[in-house]
Amino acid sequence: MAVAGRKAMGQVGFGLSLGLLMAPTIFFFYWMISLSLKTDVDNLAYPPVLLPRVLTLANYVYVFANSHLLRFAVNSLIVAVASTGLALVLGIPAGYGIARSRRYGTALLILVARITPALSYLIPWFILFQQLGLANTYLALILTHLIIGLPLVIWVMLGFFEGVPRELEDAALIDGCSRFGSFLRVAVPLTRPGIVVSGILAFIFSWNNFIFAVVLAGPRLQTLPVAVFSMMSFEQTNWGPLAAAALLITAPVLLLTLTFQRDIVAGLAAGGMKG
Amino acid sequence: MGLSLERHTYSLMIVPAAVTVLLIIVFPLIYTLWMAVHEYSMGANAPPRFLGLANYVEAFRNQRFLEAIPRTLYFTVLGVLGPTIIGTAAALAFAREFPGRGLLRTVFSLPMMATPVSIALIWQMMFHPQLGVLNYFLSLIHVSPQLWVYSPRSVIATLSIVETWQWTPFVMLIVLGGLAVLPTEPYEAALIDGASRLQTIRYVTIPLVWPYIMTAILLRSIDALKAFDIIYVMTQGGPGTASETLNIFLYLQAFAFYNVGLSSAIVVIFFLILVAMSIGLLVTRQKTSWQ
User: Model-level pTM?
Assistant: First the structure.
């Protein structure tokens, strides 16, 4: 009886601490959604309206009517898709080559990329792009975003390829497959989860990236984070539309994370990476 | 010919990525080294003039730079301590089996995936001194309203709250990875010795996952030193220069004042600090089986 009581107490205590840990995250996203759905009057009321009685989509309508959000979304999409695609095309064979030839010196370079502050690329890139006439082009943005995506893909894929048993590939080689053939037909299909994870992560970190585009993109090429940042100074305390824009730009990322939760968590833990 | 190509397949597969890395990562770093010893102003037609170490000397005479260093360290200490303590606690919680664990863990990880500009925007609204929900919460427990990012005294601490909120899941994931591969024998021994749950955590679990916590601390330190998005979006270094960390200072020098030589020199110093920390990371990592 006493033991059961202590166990129940322990469970209540655990539930409470879990609640405490989750509260800031859950409240933050609740508040983001509620700001975006409340009326102006409710958003600027004090004390703040925690449980709104009236919900409206007016903030979303306002955002689409008063900004070029869709154009910026296209910019973000072009840059993220192209840089992720390039990162995968270059990074998957490289990860495999490093894993099989054990040239871990190359992996060290990736660590350098992981620690280097973005500004150390940005200053020289900014000057070079101007001299090459590439300033303010998609190409410039795609190349800089490759700085985030390529090391990430190599790093994650390296781990996955090391997990592919050599015996499987030896069988393919004996059957007359070339080394590249066994890479394509044996190793790549076996590491598909790794490709999905690294692709999603590269996409998300490109989509989220702010610093490269804020320097390199002119008004027409702005990506979503830069566009929303410039909205901030115009809209001041027009909180509803700002929150709606903030939610819209991060929604794809949140949905991707929730959909691929298990794989993404595994990939992040394996790589210790972020953008 | 075909045979020798075949023999070098693995190396050849690395070449395209290696060339790209050289081009987009290594070359800019070298170019930065070169610019750091030259006088160079963007847009000017004059050829760059060799200055030797003058840019470095100027850096250490620059008051704003010297003030940015302790400020960055202060932010980094807070931005490492917060996520490490809360993230380790969260990892211990998520290592247990309970209903809904997978979903809750994913929700808990959302802050590190969400777009930083969006995060900064919403926190900015929550920190609003008059209308913000946080001061309202404080008033419920009879704490006087705070100025948060609007006061030079509290701006760094406030930014580190956001940094902690954002990166706690990162530490949680790394430590959780460590907890998943712990051996079971020490726990059986602790059980036989009649250790309480807290004692077991303190004397068995924490020492066993310590290498993972160290890894998290080092990665977190590197990232906190480099923090940019949240700070820039919320304060742009202000009020005044109260939140001008190294990275913000660098950004302003390079892209607001076009002070390329000076900012390149500071980038080099900054880079060396980060390299030193990463060597620490590599050394710790070698002592663990974690990859």
Answer: 0.91
